[in-house]
Fold Phage uncharacterized protein (Phage_XkdX).
Amino acid sequence: MAFWILAYNMKWVTKDQLRLAVKTEKNPFGEITPEEFKIITGEDFIITV
């Protein structure tokens, strides 16, 4: 998760790009959990279509 915190804080990734790294049913190979997404961005993870 440290990499994703750094990447987000340095603006290497946007929130939308970070959403792609979240582990979900459709993305079982994600690298962070929805809870970690909230820690990094301060916003709840909501699945967008």
